[in-house]
Amino acid sequence: MANRAFQRPDMSGPQPVEVTRLAPISTARLAPLSQASGGEIPDRAFRSVITACGLAVLGVLVLIVYELMAGSRLSWHAFHLRFFVASDWDPVNELFGALPFIYGTLVSSLVALVIAVPLSIGVAVFTTEMCPKGLRAPLSFFVELLAAIPSVIYGLWAMFVLVPLLRSYVQPFLARTLGWSGLFEGPPYGIGMLAAGIILAIMIIPIISSITREVLMVVPQHQREGVLALGATRWEMIRLGVLRNARAGIVGGIILGLGRALGETMAVTMVIGNRPEISRSLFAPGYTMASVLANEFNEATGDLYRSALIQIGLALFLVTIIVNALAQLLVWTVTRGQPARGHV
Amino acid sequence: MSEPVVKQTAVQPVSFRRRFTDRAMTGAAVATVVIVLAPLVAIFGYLVYRGVGAIDWAFLTQTPKPVGEAGGGMANAIVGSLLILGIASLIGVPLGVGAGIYLAEYGRNRLGSVIRFTCDVLNGVPSIVVGIVAYAIVVLPQGHFSALAGGTALAIMMVPTISRTTEEMLLLVPQALREAAYGLGVPRWRTTLSIVLRTATSGVITGVMLAFARVAGETAPLLFTALGNTYWSLRYDQPIAALPLQIYTYANSPYDDWHRQAWAGSLVLIILIVGSVAAVRYVVRRGSFGTA
Is residue B49 domain-resident? Predict the structure, then answer.
């Protein structure tokens, strides 16, 4: 790169490639340096600015906690712990209980995990242990591309493609074959817990599979070789030599996926049906903590109403924080301090 | 030679059951890949199929028509999204990069670990909760919904991602470069900014773009901050339209024409996200600086 500030001196003789590549940095820094030689005070100022940025991250967390607690005080005083076990949601009479939302959040996330966990682990195992080397990078790229799709587009797709599909094919089939379990009965609306669970599963698969892949890759090669040397087949090698060693990390990835599923808002709101009812059947519409916030926060008229919604937000926040912290610790134990990244 | 000997001892036939399990599990793994990639293909395929036909000149240049009238477009939402993202980047990028520098250069201590952990935990905070917080700290004091509030919410979401990737990238810069700078008498702040950060520029920018792409499609935090707007607005202190919000509203409407526009909006949003990431990566890769 041409440097305007400092003319490069003519150099005779052959120059190593390394030097010419590094030259722009060193020469560029020479000129201004002579002016700012005393670094004591700027150094200290720089350090405090940078530390302030770091502290700001802590500040954001504190701010979130403070605002949620301050906002939900009214509702806390009115209902105390009963808020979390009462199931009536009646804004007109100012009676609020969060149980249907908690139930909906848990059940939809659970359905998502049941679908996503085996699929994600399968994909991760295939990419790290089975597929040809050349296929590995593109495959991870495509799976992680799923994480780049915005939630609202998942919702749109689910509304117009997934839900009709469920309504006319999948749900009647499930009702015929597994209807006896009580989980799949009632009219097949399409929208409902099942649709929410499926779309959540698609959304958390990239998270779980990418973390599982990372964890599998740090399993030392000699573990695999050792098991193979004992005469194991490839699957036995994967099961005994790889998966068993990576257990903690995989569980961490699953919990991280759970954390994402619990807090997911838009796609779920668009397909879950938004009715605060507790029903055993997965065909029935439900409501989650995140979607009641999305739907009702702007229209909440009374102070108590809004406060009750913020309390739901606080509960959601606390649950996801605990879930995430747990997941981070588990992943950290395996990968030693690398952040668990849920997206590309 | 030794080879025949090895072969002889290794001829211990693997039982049919074990071989069958091995094959079955391989098959199952392949099946999971197919099942996982199917929705990806279906979503992108449907997006292109419905979206391409719906994007026209009017969609890109007009504001929404009143309810019941066909036509109109999302021009104001596209511009609004860019404005909100601009505000978010103005707040979030310096803060995130600063925090990343702290973690990499000064964070080898207790406080550093705490901040690192906070970042990873903040990453998992539901976006809707961030929306509530932005509502409480910007909308309530200001008295009305605004682009600034939306930008603040998205900035809060960008910071943890940016700071963690910045930290990672700065740690990749060889210690020798820092020592060389110190040896020349360069003060520490100057070393950090002009040598360490500069060397890691491409990696840091990539991290910023990932954070950008992640928040560009966020809808939930904008619901009670930017609110949405059916008219042109370029003011930072007024409610403003945003592409994801508009998609959400149109998807939930009962009008076919609005559904069509929701698909078109989604396609534009995806192009915006993928395009911005690809463009920046291309530019960074072509630049001569940076090794990360």
Answer: no
Integer CA distances (angstroms), A96 to A92, A275, B9, B97, B241, in order: 10, 14, 73, 42, 32
Structure token pair of residue B124: 């998992």
Residue B235's domain is classified under what CATH number? 1.10.3720.10
Query: Quick one: which of A252, A251, A246 has its CA closest to A219?
Result: A246
Q: Which residue of B has its CA nearest to A123?
A: B33
Domain that includes residue B156, residue range: 76-286
All residue ranges of chain A with pLDDT < 70 are 1-39, 335-344
Judged against a pLDDT cut of 80, whether residue B281 lies above it is answered with: no
pLDDT at site A162:
95
Please count the structural domains in chain B: 1
Q: Give SS3 for B185.
A: coil
Residue of A nearest to B180 (CA): A26
Instruction: Please check whether residue A279 is in contact with residue B117, taking contact to mean a CB–CB distance below 8 angstroms.
Output: no
| Nearest C-alpha neighbor of A22 from the set B90, B148, B181, B232 | B181
Indicate the burial class of A271 (C-beta count within 10 angstroms; 0-12, 13-18, 19 or more): buried
Q: Hey, which residues 79-98 in chain A have their CB within 8 Å of chain B?
A: none
Q: Which two tokens stand for residue B145?
A: 């919904």
C-alpha B126, offset from chain centre: 15
Look at residue B34 and tell me if it is in a domain: no
Give the pLDDT of residue B292.
Answer: 38
CA distance B52 to B39: 19
- Which residues in chain B have Cβ-Cβ distances shorter than 8 Å to A231? 12, 14
Residues 190-209 of A with CB under 8 A from B: 202, 205, 209
CB contact under 8 Å between A151 and B220, yes or no, is: yes
More confident residue, A235 or B3: A235
Question: The domain A74-335: what is its CATH number?
Answer: 1.10.3720.10
Contacts of A125 in chain B (CB under 8 A): 29
Q: How many CB contacts within 8 angstroms connect chain A with chain B?
A: 294
- Assigned domain for B260 exists: yes
**In-domain check, residue B133:** yes
Spell out the domain ranges in chain A: 74-335
Q: What is the CA radius of gyration of chain B?
A: 25
Distance CA(B132)–CA(B149), nearest Å, equals 10
In this prediction, residue B68 carries a pLDDT of 75
Q: What tens digit of pLDDT does each residue of B123-143 get? A: 889 999 999 999 999 999 988
List, for residues B109-126, the tens digit of each pLDDT value: 999 999 998 998 898 899
Yes or no: say if B51 and B260 are a contact pair by the CB < 8 Å rule. no
In this prediction the ipTM stands at 0.89
pTM of the model: 0.86
- In this predicted structure, the answer to whether residue B77 has a pLDDT above a threshold of 70 is yes
DSSP assignment of A170-231, as one string? IHHHHHHHHGGGSSS-S---S-SHHHHHHHHHHHHHHHHHHHHHHHHHTS-HHHHHHHHHTT
Query: Percent of chain B having pLDDT more than 70?
Result: 93
**Strand ranges (DSSP E) for B37-174?**
none
Indicate yes or no: CB of A36 within 8 angstroms of CB of B111. no
B94 contacts in A (CB within 8 Å)? 53
